[in-house]
Each structure stands twice: as C-alpha cells, then as structure tokens.
C-alpha cells in the first residue's frame, strides 16, 4: 500500500508518495525533495541541525514523522532569502562570524528565526543562549552565534519600525 | 526502524478502537516514540496518529479555578500561556527547563507523561532489560547508574522517570483524565506511574487502548503561585535531563508555612511526592534549618542502586534549595535560565536563604 501526503515547502506544494510511513520530515526534505540544506546531525533530536519551521514554529525534522505533518507549511533554509536578498538572520550570521565549518548553520539560522518570532529573548545574551540551546555547534562558534542573533533581532525590529 | 501500519483516526473513540488491538502505540509529537523506534528499543506494529484529534489541544480555566490541560497541548504553548503561568509558575518553569525549544514545540503534555525512561540499557536492544523484556535481567546493575534511582527501586529495575513536567504536577495534585475501551476514568498523577515490581511490567496505570485526554490541576494549585519554584540539577546548564530535581510550593502567612508541597525528579521510576517532608513543614517557620530537615525526610529510605550514592545528598540539597527559592518568592519574570541552579534567587523576598 502506498501512502501520500502533501507538503507546502517554501511556498511550493508537493505531493509525496511513500511506500510506508517510516520516513521522517527530514528524510522527505533531503531524499525526496532534494532540499539538502537541512542537515542530519544526530537524527535523534539531540543537535538541532535538522531544525525547520512547521506552520511557523521551529521543530526538529528528524523526530517528526512526515505523515504526521501532511498538509503543513514547511520553511527550510532554502526558503528564507527574498528576491535574491539574504534574510537578515543570514546576513547577521555572516557579519558576526557565526560559523566555522557551517554544518550546524542552517539549523542555527532556522532556530534563530523561530526564536526571534517567539519574541521572548529580546537582546539579552543569556536569554538568547538559552533560546538557542537546542542547537549544538561542534566548532563552538557560540559567541558569534549569540552576537548574530542579537544583531538580527535588532535589524528585524528596525525593519519593522521602518515599515510601520 | 521497523515497518508499521499507520492510521489517522478522526475521533477519540476511533483512536481507542485502533489502539486496543495488537501491538499499537499512539503517536503524538513523536519526540520520544520515534527516538525509541530508531534505537530499536520499541517496535509497535501500528502507529495511531492522534495529532489531529479534535478537542484535545485547549487549556481551559473553569469558573471554580480548575485548570484542564488537553493532552495534545504542546509543552511550549502551555509554558507560554500567560494565565497558566500566573496560576502554576512552577509547572511552566519545569517545562522550560526540559528538552530544547524545538522539542518543546513538538512535545505534547500526554506524551511527556508517557515518555519512557532514559536508562541507556533500556535504549540499547543488545542489553538485557526487564522493561523491554520481562525476565531478561537488568544490565544497568553494576553499570553506569548516574541517571538511575535511589528511591523505590527493586532488583528488577532501577530506572527513573525522566519528566520535568510531572514533578510540579504531582506536587500540585494533578489528575490524569483517560478515555478507553470501557469509557472514561481518572487517576491521580501520584499513582499514575508504577514503581517496578518483581518483573517490572506495567509502567503506568494505562490499560491497552487507553488514551490520556487531559491533565487537570485543582483550583488549590493556584494558591501556591506566589511561592512556587522548580530546580533542576543537570550536567550542563541547558538541554539535558535532570540528575535530580525538585518542585517546591509553599503557602506562607505571617512568617509561617501554612502548607507545603514538595516533589522530587530523577530519583525514582515516578515523580516522587515527599509527603513526610510536607508534614514537617506545615506550621514551621521558613528557615534553612526547616528546609534541610524536610529535605532529609524526603530522602528517608533512599539507598544507592549502583555507583550513585551521591544522588541522595544532591537530591536533598536541591530539595532544600528549591524550598528556599520558593520561600523567597516566585520571580516576577521567568528566569533567563529556568530551573537552573546557576540562576540568581527570586525577588520579592519573603525571607529564607538561597543556600539551604
Ligand atoms: C534530546 C532530548 C532531550 C530531552 N530532554 C528532556 C528533558 O530535559 N526533560 C523532559 O521532561 N523531557 C525531555 N525530553 C523528552 C520529551 O519531553 C518527550 O519526548 C516528549 O514530552 C514526548 O512527547 P511527544 O508528544 O513527542 O510524545 P510521543 O513521542 O509522540 O509519545 C511518547 C509516548 O507516549 C505515548 N502517548 C503520547 N500521547 C499519548 C496520550 N495522549 N495518551 C496515551 N499515550 C500517549 C506514545 O504512545 C509514546 O509511547 C527530551 C527528549 C529528547 C529527544
Ligand atoms: S534499570 Fe530498568 S530500564 Fe534500565 S536496564 Fe534495568 S530493567 Fe531495563
Ligand atoms: S538531526 Fe535532528 S536534532 Fe540532530
Ligand atoms: S560551524 Fe561547525 S558545527 Fe557549527
């Protein structure tokens, strides 16, 4: 028996057919839709490399059964730039030297976008570190990551003020 | 991961029916179940996806003060709900001290209660484990027992229940609402998780097919809101399971404790309500000495299940400190590091020192 599900990923709708229900959202994104920006670090919820937004909320795609998010809107790292311009969080990561090897970076950026949308950390480095604690960085770029998230939070609130 | 049958029922009745036969498991956030299936420690023949069941994702505040939390409410949504935070701040603090933001966005309240032990030998299908296979033996004995029990364990199993959420919930007399093949019933959280028996079979009060529909807090829970804390000792500041933890809640009037609630996490196969400690505190002045006496009473009867005797003293210290923090007053704003032993003490101090 084949199963099917539909996902809207970065605004594009996909119908996916599965032989059985085992694939996670992470595996469907990478293996079926060719969106390899989302990384598989631990595959067990322990590192955050697989972080994506599901209906606007950050989750670990490695512990999410694809079938259970049938019909959802997914945003991955491939979908955050607008009209060729980097997302402010992406720009802030570059400007603040927030990575070394880059493997954890897509997950860090998606997590930061989620954190800023949640709106609870503000510019407090301690709250940012706690809010980003679900994303490990083996290169230990943590000081840069914290600074990038603080910087991006500021840029985004300035953008909001400008457009208001 | 084994191949399994996947069903998506439209109602609670359909879900119960689908889970009543064969080797079925409910799928909620999947953050524990998929992890166990990937490890090969769990291999249900059928997953019953309950994520779309209607009516299970509300937080209801009844006129009489009862709070009813639907089983599918996400851990993060409960912790962020302003009215809930005001009524049960220690529960919110415990939620935010658990897992990571991403996991909390996916994890449900029902799933959190039902999560299995983090015993490494339980997770490893090549180790002998009575919980996975009754009568197989227990490879945790003589192994790495940092996250194992010091209270309520037997030779059959020395595992702990890893939930943070359950610790303040049990202190506040939470009740679990259940729907099953035989209709609905409810069970006090204090007797919901089972201590291991001779063979260590049943882990919770749920019978085959039974679904948690909600967790209820009695109106009385909110009377502790001004003096309620959760404290969690772990091996890194965040994103780690508790080595030991404590939830403390006090009702203080005119410098006396009218009523105390205390529960411990990370010490037993269930969230451990410390009723003897509570009795000692009723009527006492909120002093470090009283808190330490109560903490010692909470650990009365504790003994190491392996190379983990230090957990007994650690748990007593964490309990005493949680009581002192509760006496000092619930902070106006959730601390930057919820439940952390490194966070500064609460404001609006009512007396009581941080170092019990
Ligand atoms: C890396 C990592 C770190 C973590 N750290 C912490 C921590 O510090 N503190 C902590 O408390 N937890 C922690 N967790 C565990 C996490 O809280 C649980 O995995 C989560 O709460 C489970 O909820 P879920 O909805 O994802 O459940 P699922 O994984 O979907 O289900 C878990 C179990 O509950 C059953 N179930 C689910 N809902 C119901 C229901 N309504 N009725 C009956 N049975 C049901 C399922 O059949 C399954 O057996 C961590 C998890 C990970 C992966
Ligand atoms: S402690 Fe319990 S869960 Fe761990 S291996 Fe022994 S029987 Fe299994
Ligand atoms: S790959 Fe999902 S958390 Fe590590
Ligand atoms: S930049 Fe290498 S793991 Fe984070």
From TrEMBL, chain A:
InterPro entries, alphabetized:
2Fe-2S-bd (IPR002888), 2Fe-2S-bd_dom_sf (IPR036884), 2Fe-2S_ferredoxin-like_sf (IPR036010), 2Fe-2S_ferredoxin-type (IPR001041), 2Fe2S_fd_BS (IPR006058), Aldehyde_Oxdr_Iron-Sulfur (IPR052914), Beta-grasp_dom_sf (IPR012675)
Q: Which UniProt keywords apply?
A: 2Fe-2S, Iron, Iron-sulfur, Metal-binding, Oxidoreductase
Q: Which PROSITE patterns match?
A: 2FE2S_FER_1 (PS00197), 2FE2S_FER_2 (PS51085)
Pfam annotation, one family: Fer2
Q: Which SUPFAM superfamilies match?
A: 2Fe-2S ferredoxin-like (SSF54292), CO dehydrogenase ISP C-domain like (SSF47741)
Ranges for domain 2Fe-2S ferredoxin-type: 3-80
Name the Gene Ontology molecular function terms of this record. Answer: 2 iron, 2 sulfur cluster binding; metal ion binding; oxidoreductase activity, acting on the aldehyde or oxo group of donors
What is the name listed in the Swiss-Prot or TrEMBL entry for this protein? Answer: (2Fe-2S)-binding protein
Q: What is the protein's species of origin? A: Acuticoccus mangrovi
TrEMBL record, chain B:
Q: Which Pfam families match?
A: CO_deh_flav_C (PF03450), FAD_binding_5 (PF00941)
| A GO molecular-function descriptor | FAD binding
Keyword annotations from UniProtKB, A to Z: FAD, Flavoprotein
Is Ribosomal protein a UniProt keyword of this protein? no
Domain FAD-binding PCMH-type stretches: 1-222
Task: Indicate yes or no for the key word Flavoprotein.
Answer: yes
Q: What is this protein called?
A: FAD binding domain-containing protein
- Name its species: Acuticoccus mangrovi
């Amino acid at each position: 028996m084949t199963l099917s599900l539909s996902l809207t990923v970065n605004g594009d709708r996909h119908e996916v057919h599965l032989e059985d229900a085992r694939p996670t959202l992470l595996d469907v994104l990478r293996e079926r839709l060719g969106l390899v920006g989302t990384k598989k670090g631990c595959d067990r919820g322990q590192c955050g490399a697989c972080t994506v937004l599901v209906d606007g909320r950050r989750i670990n795609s490695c512990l999410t059964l694809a079938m259970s998010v049938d019909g959802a809107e997914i945003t991955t790292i491939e979908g955050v730039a607008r009209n060729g311009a980097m997302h402010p969080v992406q720009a802030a990561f570059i400007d603040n030297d927030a990575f070394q090897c880059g493997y954890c970076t897509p997950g860090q950026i998606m997590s930061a976008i989620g954190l800023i949308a949640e709106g609870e950390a503000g510019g407090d480095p301690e709250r940012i570190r706690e809010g980003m604690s679900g994303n490990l960085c083996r290169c230990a770029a943590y000081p840069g990551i914290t600074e990038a998230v603080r910087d991006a939070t500021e840029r985004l609130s300035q953008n909001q003020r400008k457009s208001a | 991961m084994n191949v399994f049958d996947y069903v998506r029922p439209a109602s609670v009745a359909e879900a119960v029916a689908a889970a009543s036969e064969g080797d079925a498991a409910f799928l909620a956030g999947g953050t524990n179940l998929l992890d166990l299936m990937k490890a090969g420690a769990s291999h249900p023949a059928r997953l019953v996806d309950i994520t779309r069941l209607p009516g299970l994702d509300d937080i209801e505040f009844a006129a009489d003060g009862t709070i009813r939390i639907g089983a599918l409410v996400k851990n993060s949504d409960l912790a962020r709900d302003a009215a809930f935070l005001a009524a049960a701040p220690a529960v919110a603090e415990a939620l935010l001290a658990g897992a990571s933001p991403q996991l909390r966005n996916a994890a449900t309240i029902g799933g959190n209660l039902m999560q299995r032990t983090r015993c490494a030998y339980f997770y490893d299908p090549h180790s002998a484990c009575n919980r996975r296979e009754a009568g197989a033996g227990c490879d945790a004995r003589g192994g790495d027992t940092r996250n194992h029990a010091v209270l309520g364990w037997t030779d059959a199993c020395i595992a702990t229940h890893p939930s943070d959420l359950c610790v303040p919930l049990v202190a506040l007399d939470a009740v679990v609402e259940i729907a099953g093949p035989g209709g609905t019933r409810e069970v006090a959280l204090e007797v919901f998780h089972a201590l291991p028996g001779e063979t260590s079979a049943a882990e919770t009060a749920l019978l085959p097919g039974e679904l948690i529909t909600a967790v209820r807090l009695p109106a009385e829970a909110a009377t502790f809101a001004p003096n309620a804390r959760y404290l969690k000792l772990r091996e890194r500041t965040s994103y780690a399971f508790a080595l030991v933890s404590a939830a403390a809640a006090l009702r203080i009037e005119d410098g006396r404790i009218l009523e105390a609630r205390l529960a411990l996490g990370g010490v037993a196969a269930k969230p451990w309500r410390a009723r003897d400690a509570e009795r000692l505190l009723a009527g006492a002045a909120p002093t470090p000495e009283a808190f330490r006496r109560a903490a010692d009473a909470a650990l009365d009867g504790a003994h190491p299940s392996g190379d983990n005797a230090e957990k007994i003293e650690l748990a007593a210290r964490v309990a005493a400190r949680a009581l002192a923090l509760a006496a000092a007053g619930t902070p106006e704003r959730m601390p930057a590091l919820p439940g952390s032993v490194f966070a500064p003490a609460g404001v609006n101090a009512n007396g009581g020192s941080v170092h019990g």
